[in-house]
Amino acid sequence: MWEAAFWGFVGGAALLVGAAAGLWLPVSTRVIGGVMAVGTGVLVSALTFELTEEAYQRAGGLPAVLGLLSGSLVFFAGDWWIDHRGGNRRKSPTGQHQAGSGGTALALGALLDGIPESAAIGVSLLGGGSVGVAVVAAVFLSNIPESMSSSAGMRKAGHSARFIMAMWLAVTVASAIAAGLGYVLLGSASGSVVGYIQTFAAGAILTMLADTMVPEAVEHAGRLVGLLVVFGFVAAFLLSTAG
Questions:
Q1: pTM for this predicted structure
Q2: What is the DSSP secondary-structure string of 95-147?
């Protein structure tokens, strides 16, 4: 449990790094969009080879498909609810549509985006194996641009640096807890259940990428996004096969 929580914290700690960069470094929105695109490719690779493929081998096709669909639906419903309470465009580096957004909605949106990734880290430790390095690396590398963009936007929308850093610290702690719980609650579960949870996380992550990360990346980095996504995908794929 503690190992899973530690690696969940490591992945979540990137949120603090990205938030600090977004608040205090003079990074252009074009650069932020490009880094978001790379992070998207990294996560797509991890959820493909480290989550979905492993879930298929562990549980078969039906649990994997059901997990992907249900994870996507649950994220979509949660995202819709948060969007209508002020959390829409929460990853925008420009602050667009964030002025007047409630802090609670933004915090809940950050949790909704981060919990599936952290749970995936905890699940990767099941079966007595070592932590999925590619999963941790993917979560870490994708969290930096995510919080960088969101923090820059929240600051421009009028939120204080103290509020922003406190929010990401809370999400980081929640990430560690989610990773630990993912390991504890599924430690004695059957292969079908574990496979379902793996693809549930993958479906939620993929929906998050399509709904929030990619649109912001395209808006701010333009035509380079496609190339940068593939670059991130290849880098994570090489890391996965090397492990």
A1: 0.81
A2: -TTTTT--HHHHHHHHHHHHHHHHHHHHHTTGGG----HHHHHHHHHHHHHHH
